[in-house]
Design brief:
heterodimer; A: Immunoglobulin-like; 2 domains; 44% strand; disordered N terminus; B: Immunoglobulin-like; five-stranded mixed beta sheet
Chain lengths: 358, 903
C-alpha cells in the first residue's frame, strides 16, 4: 500500500520543463550593430558583429574591417576607429553629443554592403529626483539537480523617481554598486571577521521606464537593481553562508545613470526586456521581436539587427544601509562614487562607512 | 431477432421477475370520462389521455370488447378487470405506466405466442374522430426507460412513408400521419430500437420508453439512429453526442467531459492541453458560442482544462453546429455548442454520487408533487493534499481546487406549459508556487418557459444572466504583488415561435443581449504591497437580433433549411473613443481627437443581415448529400496575453477602432449508412473566410491596456478542410474514426509596416492543425464490464522560434522567425478506461460502478508551450544565457479510480 501511494504521487501532476532544441532552419549570419551617442564626453563605441543562427555552434563573430561613421543630421560626419572585440570608437576630442541633435550610424562592410540607421535624436534628460531602496523578501525554489529547496530570498530593491514633465517619457538606466559586507569565516581560523568590498554592475541587465505608465508622467518607485542573497551566491559561491544574513548592513554605494530615449529606442529595448524577462510560469507568451532602426541600403532584402541611438545622461549617487531589526533601508545622497571596477577586497576593517541619522 | 420481439421478450421476462414489486399506482388512477357502451379501445385512448399510462395489445384480442360498466370515477384497474374478464385476457404492468394485455395462460417460454405478439397495435386518437382529418398529428415524448429522462435527438421514423423527425430538448416529437395503420420506429444511439405498430384514428399521443442495452438480456444489440439522423437532417455540420456516449469515453480523472469528447469529432480540436475551450474549423476559442440551457457560458473548464465546467449528470444532450448555424443562433462565427440541461425526474427520488482520488460529486433529483421536480448537484476537489506531497517543489508549493454547484427546478402546470429555473456557480483557485495566483468564478442563472400553443405551434421564452470574473495575481515580490481583475457580465433574453405545418418547420424569434466588460482593474494584492490601484474603463454593449427560419421538405428527397438573421450591435457609453490619424499606424502619437460618450450614448452602430441556407438531397434511404452556406457576425473578441487560452483573458467589444468579426462559410457533405446500417460514414468539405480577426502586434501589451486598439491588428483568415468520419454504433464494439485534413491561414496586411505581420503575407494561424485523427472505441465485454479507449494524433500547432542570436548591452538578444513559421511536434495520446457495473438488478436501491481510467497511457510528453527564458549557460544549451524550454503539463500516464453510486 505504501508503494502504491508512492507510485500515485509520482505519476500525478508530473508536468515538466525541459531544455528544448527544435529543428530551426540554418541561417546565414547577418550583421548586427550596437552604438550610442551621449552628451557625456566620449569616446563612444559602436559594435559591429555578425549574428549567429540560434542553433549555431560557433561564437559570435566580430567585424573588424568595416568603415564606420556617425552623421549628425545638420552637421559633420565623424569617423570611428576599430579597437577590439568589434568595437569602433569616436575621437573624444572632436565629438561630443549635443542635446536635440540627431545622429545616425553608417557602416560600409568589407563585402560592400552599406548599412544606415534612422536618425535618433539626443533628447534632454531630467534629473533623477530621488533614489530610494526597499527591503524585500520573496519565495524562491532552488535545485541542486536532485532535490528542490524552498528559500526566502531577501534583498534590497533600488528604485528611482523622476519627474519627466517637459521631457521625453522614455528612459533607460544602468547602475553600479559597491557592496560592503561583514563575513565570519572560520578557515583559516586566524581570521574571524573581515569585510568584503565588492563592485557590481548592472551590465547584462536592462532597466527601462515609460513615464506614461505613471500618474502625471512622474516616474515613481521605478525598480532598478536588486541586491539580494541570490546575487551574493552567484558572485562568490564559497562565501554564501555568512553573507546570506548580512546583506548590506555595512553599506552600499549606488550610482544610477538615467538615459533619455526616443520612442523608437524605447520600443526596441522594451521588446528586449520582454524577451529576457519572459517568466512564463505556465503559459506561452506572444513573442517579442526587437525591431531595430538599421537597414541595409545597398540591398533592401538584406536584414540587419540592432539599434543605434542617442541619449542624454543624468546620474545620481546614494549610499544605503539596512537596519535588519526593522527591515528598514536608510539612504543618503553622496557626491562621489569610488572608482573601483573589478576588485573584490577582503579587509579586517570597513573601507567606508556612512553615517545615517535615524 | 427483430427488435420488437426482443423488446417484448425483455419486457415480459423483466416483468415476470420484478413486476410483483413494481408500483401500480398509475393503474389505480380514477378516470373522469364516461365510456359505457364504447369499445374498450375508446376507453383505453381516454385513459391514456387522462393519465401517463400506455396500453399495448393485439387488435384482434380487444376489438370485440365493449365497456359494459360505468367508468367515470372508477380506477383503470376496476374498469379493465371487468371489461376483459370474459375474453380470456389478462394484463401485466411494466414500469408502472405500461399495461400489456396478454391472453390468459400466456408463458414467456412459449416462442409461438411470442411470435404472435409481434402483431400488437397501438391505437392513436379518438375513434369518434376517425377520418375527420387527412393528416393527424401524432406526438409524444421519448424517454430513457432506465432513468425516465427525455431523450433529445431520438429519431422517430414512419416506416411506411419514410417520414422521420427527431425529438427536441424535451424529448418531444411530432409527426403528421394519415389515418390507418403504420409502424413507428424509435431509435437512439446506445438504446434498444423500438418499433411500434400503430393505428392512427385521429391526432393523439404516443409516449415511448427506450430501454438501455445493458438491461436487455441475451443477444444485446446496441442500435443507433445517429446515421439516419445525419442522413435525414437538412442541417450540415452538426455533431451530436449524448451523455451515454460521452460517459463511456475514457477521460482524465474518470469524469465525463463534454468538451474533451467533442474534440474527438472531426473539425473540432483541443485548444491545447490544459487550455480552456476548443477550436472548430480553425476558429479561435472565442468564436464558439456555448449555451447552457440558452444561457451563455464564458468558462468551459476547471483547473485549466482538467475538468469540464459542465456537470455530466445534469446534461441531457450536446449539439455542436460547426457549419451553417440555424438562424436562431448567432454572435459567434465558428460554432454553437447547444447544451441542454435535462428535466428533473418527475417519478421518484434518485441520484448519483461519485468518489475519486481528487474529486467527488453528488447529484440528486426528485419530484415535488406531480407538477414540480428538481435536481441539485455539486462537485469539489481535494487535490491540495496530493500537491503538497509532490517531489517537485514548484508543484509542492502550489494549490489547486475548484467546486461547482448546479440546481434546476422544472414546473409543469399542465401538458402545455413548462417552466424551468436553473442556476450554476463555480469557483476555481490556483496558486503556482506562491508566484502567481488565479481565481475565477462563473455564475449563471436562467429561466425558460415553453408553451405548446397548439399541436402545431410552440412558444419559447428564455432569460439568463451570466457573470464571469477572473483575478490573476503576481506574487513574485511581496512588496509589489498585484492583482488584476477582469470580467464579463452578460444578460440575454430570447423569444421564439416554432410552427410546424405540413412540410414546414418555421422558427421566428428575437433576441437581446446586454454585455458589460471589465477589461482590467489592478490593485495591491495585500497590505504589504505598495502597488497603486488602476482601472481600465468598463465597456458596455447591446446586441439584438431577429430571425426567421424554415425547414421545408420540398419533396420526399429534397429539403431546404433557410433562414435569415438580422443583427445589430453598438457599444454604449460611458466611454472615451480615440480617433487616429489615417497617416500613421495606431499609436498614442497618432491620436488626433477623442470623443466622450455619456452614459447610454451609442458609440457606433453595426448591423447586418446574416443569411443561412442548407440543402439536403436524399440519394436513397441510406445516403444523402448536403450543402450549406452561412454568413455570421461577431461583435466581441477575446484578448489573450498568451498563445493558449487562459482564464484571465478578457473580452473586447467592437467599437470605432475595432470592427466586428464576420465570416462566410460554404460546406458540402455526403452522408450514408452502410452494411445494414452498422456503419455510418460522412465526408464534409468546407471553406471559410473571416474578416477582422484579431492578432497582436509584435510585443503587444494586453493587460491593463486602456488603448488596446494600438496593440492589436485586424486580419483575414481563410480556412478549408476535409472531414471524414466512420462510425459504428451497433453491437458490442462501437466507436468511430474521425480524420480532418485542414489548413487555416491568417493575413494581416495593414497600411503601415507596424500593421503587417510577416510582410502582409498569409501565415499559419495559431489554430492550424494539418492533420487531426481520433479513434474511439467502446467494447461491452460482458454485461458488467465495459472497456473504452481513444487515441488522438494531431499535427503540432504553429510556433515562432528564435532564428538569430546577437549581443547588445551585454545581453543575448534573439531575433525571431516569421510568426508561426515552425510547428511544434505532433500531439498524440492514448487514453484507456474500464468500467465495472456492480449490480444490474433494478430492484437494488444502489447501483455501484467502478471506473478505472488511464490518461496518456504511454506517457507521451506532449508540448504545452515553448518559451524563451534566462538559463545558466552550460553545454546542454550550448552556453547560451537564454534558452528555449518546453513545458509538458501531463508527461506521464495518469491513473484514476472513481466509484460511482447510482441510487
Amino acid at each position: 500500500m505504501k508503494h502504491l501511494k508512492s507510485i500515485l504521487l509520482i505519476l500525478l501532476f508530473a508536468g515538466c520543463e525541459e531544455y528544448y532544441e527544435p529543428n530551426i532552419d540554418s541561417v546565414k549570419p547577418i550583421y548586427a550593430f550596437e552604438g550610442y551617442v551621449t552628451n557625456l564626453p566620449g569616446p563612444y563605441c559602436v559594435k559591429v558583429l555578425k549574428s549567429n543562427g540560434y542553433n549555431a555552434e560557433q561564437q559570435i563573430e566580430y567585424v573588424s574591417d568595416a568603415q564606420v561613421t556617425i552623421e549628425c543630421k545638420d552637421g559633420p560626419i565623424y569617423n570611428l576607429t576599430y579597437d577590439a572585440n568589434g568595437c569602433y570608437y569616436t575621437d573624444s576630442a572632436t565629438f561630443l553629443g549635443k542635446i536635440n541633435h540627431s545622429y545616425r550610424l553608417k557602416v560600409e562592410t568589407f563585402d560592400g554592403k552599406i548599412f544606415e540607421s534612422e536618425y535618433d535624436q539626443l533628447l534632454a534628460c531630467p534629473d533623477i529626483e530621488e533614489l530610494t531602496a526597499q527591503y524585500y523578501e520573496k519565495n524562491v525554489v532552488t535545485t541542486d539537480g536532485i532535490y528542490f529547496y524552498d528559500e526566502i530570498e531577501r534583498g534590497i530593491q533600488v528604485m528611482n523617481s523622476t519627474d519627466t514633465y517637459g521631457h521625453t517619457p522614455y528612459y533607460k538606466y544602468d547602475c553600479r554598486l559597491i557592496l560592503q559586507s561583514q563575513q565570519r569565516y572560520n578557515n583559516p581560523p586566524s581570521i574571524i571577521d573581515f569585510y568584503i568590498f565588492r563592485p557590481v554592475s548592472s551590465y547584462g541587465n536592462l532597466y527601462i521606464a515609460n513615464a506614461k505608465d505613471y500618474e502625471n508622467k512622474h516616474i515613481t518607485g521605478n525598480q532598478l537593481f536588486c541586491t539580494s542573497t541570490k546575487l551574493f551566491r552567484y558572485a562568490d559561491p564559497s562565501l554564501i553562508e555568512g553573507l546570506e544574513y548580512e546583506l548590506i548592513n555595512y553599506g552600499e554605494y549606488v550610482r544610477v545613470n538615467q538615459y533619455s530615449m526616443t520612442e523608437a529606442q524605447y520600443n526596441y529595448w522594451n521588446a528586449v526586456k520582454h524577451q529576457i524577462e519572459n517568466k512564463n510560469y505556465l503559459f506561452g507568451q506572444i513573442e517579442n521581436q526587437a525591431i531595430g532602426n538599421i537597414k541595409c541600403t545597398s540591398n533592401p532584402d538584406e536584414q540587419a539587427l540592432g539599434f543605434f541611438g542617442a541619449s542624454a545622461v543624468k546620474s545620481a549617487i546614494h549610499a544605503f544601509s539596512l537596519r535588519e531589526q526593522k527591515n528598514t533601508v536608510y539612504s543618503i545622497a553622496i557626491d562621489s562614487f569610488p572608482d573601483t571596477d573589478t576588485m573584490i577586497i577582503y579587509n579586517e576593517r570597513p573601507l567606508f562607512s556612512v553615517r545615517f541619522s535615524n | 431477432m427483430r427488435p420488437v420481439k426482443k423488446l417484448f421478450l425483455t419486457l415480459i421476462l423483466v416483468v415476470l421477475t420484478a413486476a410483483a414489486t413494481l408500483a401500480q399506482s398509475s393503474i389505480l388512477t380514477r378516470i373522469g370520462s364516461e365510456c359505457i357502451g364504447q369499445p374498450l379501445t375508446y376507453y383505453l385512448s381516454k385513459a391514456e389521455a387522462e393519465t401517463d399510462i400506455l396500453f399495448f395489445y393485439k387488435d384482434n384480442w380487444v376489438n370485440s370488447i365493449t365497456i359494459q360498466q360505468p367508468t367515470q370515477g372508477k380506477t383503470i384497474k376496476q374498469t379493465i378487470d371487468r371489461a376483459i374478464a370474459d375474453y380470456g385476457l389478462t394484463y401485466i404492468v411494466f414500469q408502472r405506466r405500461n399495461i400489456i394485455f396478454i391472453p390468459q395462460g400466456f408463458t414467456v417460454d412459449n416462442d409461438k405466442l411470442m411470435e404472435g405478439m409481434v402483431g400488437y397495435i397501438k391505437v392513436i386518437g379518438n375513434i369518434m374522430e376517425k377520418g375527420r382529418y387527412k393528416q393527424n398529428k401524432v406526438e409524444g415524448t421519448v424517454l430513457a426507460g432506465k432513468t425516465m429522462e427525455p431523450i433529445v435527438g431520438a429519431v422517430v421514423l414512419d416506416t411506411k412513408s419514410h417520414t422521420a423527425t427527431t425529438t427536441d430538448v424535451d424529448g418531444h416529437y411530432e409527426l403528421l400521419l394519415p389515418v390507418g395503420q403504420t409502424e413507428l420506429e424509435f431509435s437512439f444511439i446506445g438504446l434498444e430500437t423500438e418499433v411500434i405498430k400503430i393505428d392512427v384514428l385521429s391526432p393523439g399521443t404516443l409516449d415511448v420508453e427506450l430501454m438501455e442495452a445493458s438491461i436487455a438480456l441475451e443477444g444485446v444489440t446496441i442500435t443507433s439512429s445517429g446515421g439516419k439522423n445525419r442522413i435525414n437532417r437538412t442541417q450540415l455540420g452538426v455533431e451530436n453526442l449524448d451523455m451515454r456516449t460521452i460517459s463511456k469515453l475514457p477521460v482524465l480523472m474518470g469524469e465525463a467531459d463534454i468538451v474533451k469528447s467533442m474534440t474527438l469529432l472531426p473539425g473540432v480540436q483541443t485548444a491545447g492541453e490544459m487550455s480552456t475551450g476548443f477550436n472548430v474549423r480553425g476558429g479561435n476559442v472565442d468564436q464558439n458560442l456555448i449555451l447552457l440551457n440558452e444561457a451563455p457560458v464564458y468558462n468551459t473548464s476547471h483547473m485549466f482544462g482538467l475538468f469540464s465546467t459542465f456537470i455530466p449528470n445534469a446534461i441531457s444532450s450536446v449539439e455542436l453546429y460547426k457549419s451553417a448555424q440555424p438562424a436562431s443562433f448567432g454572435s459567434r462565427i465558428s460554432a454553437v455548442m447547444d447544451i441542454g440541461l435535462k428535466d428533473a425526474d418527475t417519478t421518484r427520488l434518485h441520484g448519483n454520487a461519485g468518489i475519486g482520488i481528487l474529486n467527488s460529486q453528488l447529484f440528486v433529483e426528485a419530484p415535488i408533487g406531480r407538477k414540480i421536480s428538481f435536481y441539485a448537484g455539486g462537485r469539489t476537489t481535494y487535490s491540495n493534499w496530493l500537491l503538497h506531497k509532490m517531489h517537485n517543489a514548484n508543484i509542492r508549493n502550489s494549490e489547486a481546487s475548484f467546486y461547482d454547484l448546479i440546481g434546476k427546478i422544472d414546473i409543469r402546470p399542465n401538458r402545455k406549459h413548462h417552466f424551468d429555473i436553473f442556476g450554476y456557480y463555480s469557483n476555481d483557485f490556483f496558486n503556482y508556487n506562491q508566484l502567481s495566483e488565479f481565481a475565477y468564478t462563473q455564475q449563471i442563472i436562467g429561466i425558460n418557459y415553453r408553451w405548446l400553443i397548439t399541436h402545431q405551434a410552440q412558444f419559447k421564452l428564455s432569460g439568463s444572466h451570466t457573470g464571469y470574473t477572473s483575478i490573476m495575481s503576481d506574487l513574485t515580490q511581496k512588496t509589489l504583488s498585484s492583482s488584476v481583475e477582469t470580467g464579463i457580465y452578460h444578460t440575454r433574453g430570447k423569444a421564439e415561435l416554432l410552427i410546424e405545418q405540413l412540410s414546414h418547420n418555421l422558427n421566428i424569434g428575437v433576441e437581446a443581449n446586454l454585455i458589460r466588460i471589465n477589461p482590467g482593474k489592478m490593485s495591491a494584492y495585500n497590505s504589504q504591497s505598495s502597488v497603486m490601484p488602476a482601472k481600465t474603463a468598463n465597456e458596455n454593449g447591446i446586441e439584438a437580433a431577429a430571425f426567421i427560419a424554415d425547414n421545408y421538405n420540398i419533396t420526399d428527397n429534397l429539403s431546404v433549411s433557410a433562414g435569415v438573421r438580422y443583427s445589430l450591435f453598438s457599444k454604449i457609453g460611458p466611454c472615451t473613443e480615440y480617433k487616429y490619424s489615417p497617416k500613421a499606424a495606431k499609436s498614442e502619437a497618432a491620436i488626433k481627437d477623442s470623443t466622450v460618450y455619456a452614459d447610454g450614448d451609442m458609440v457606433k452602430l453595426y448591423q447586418g443581415i446574416e443569411p443561412r441556407i442548407g440543402l439536403r438531397y436524399k440519394l436513397s434511404n441510406t445516403s444523402s448529400i448536403k450543402a450549406g452556406y452561412s454568413y455570421t457576425k461577431q461583435y466581441q473578441q477575446l484578448i489573450s496575453s498568451s498563445t493558449s487560452a487562459m482564464p484571465s483573458d478578457y473580452w473586447k467589444l467592437a467599437d470605432n477602432n475595432i470592427a466586428p468579426l464576420s465570416s462566410h462559410q460554404v460546406s458540402v457533405g455526403y452522408f450514408s449508412t452502410m452494411w445494414n446500417e452498422i456503419l455510418d460514414f460522412s465526408a464534409e468539405v468546407y471553406y471559410k473566410i473571416s474578416q477582422n480577426q484579431i492578432d497582436y502586434k509584435n510585443g503587444a501589451v494586453t493587460t491593463m491596456n486602456s488603448n488596446i486598439e494600438q496593440d492589436i491588428l485586424a486580419g483575414k483568415v481563410r480556412s478549408y478542410g476535409l472531414e471524414l468520419m466512420l462510425k459504428k454504433s451497433i453491437g458490442n464494439l462501437s466507436g468511430w474514426i474521425s480524420y480532418t485534413l485542414s489548413n487555416t491561414q491568417m493575413k494581416v496586411d495593414g497600411q503601415f509596416a507596424e500593421e503587417k505581420i510577416n510582410g502582409g503575407q498569409y501565415y499559419a494561424a495559431i489554430t492550424h492543425h494539418l492533420h487531426d485523427l481520433s479513434v474511439t472505441a467502446n467494447y461491452q465485454i460482458t454485461r458488467r464490464w465495459n472497456a473504452a479507449a481513444n487515441f488522438v494524433l494531431t499535427s503540432g500547432r504553429p510556433a515562432t522560434y528564435p532564428e538569430y542570436v546577437y549581443q547588445a548591452n551585454g545581453m543575448e538578444i534573439v531575433h525571431f522567425s516569421d510568426r508561426n513559421k515552425y510547428r511544434l511536434p505532433a500531439y498524440h495520446r492514448l487514453d484507456l478506461s474500464a468500467t465495472y457495473e456492480g449490480n444490474l438488478n433494478k430492484k437494488q436501491k444502489v447501483h455501484p460502478s467502478l471506473t478505472f481510467a488511464l490518461y496518456n497511457a504511454y506517457g507521451h510528453k506532449n508540448i504545452y508551450s515553448v518559451f524563451y527564458k534566462k538559463s545558466a549557460p552550460s553545454s546542454t544549451n550550448k552556453y547560451h544565457s537564454y534558452g528555449l524550454y518546453k513545458l509538458s503539463i501531463i508527461g506521464v500516464p495518469i491513473p484514476s479510480v472513481t466509484l460511482n453510486l447510482r441510487f
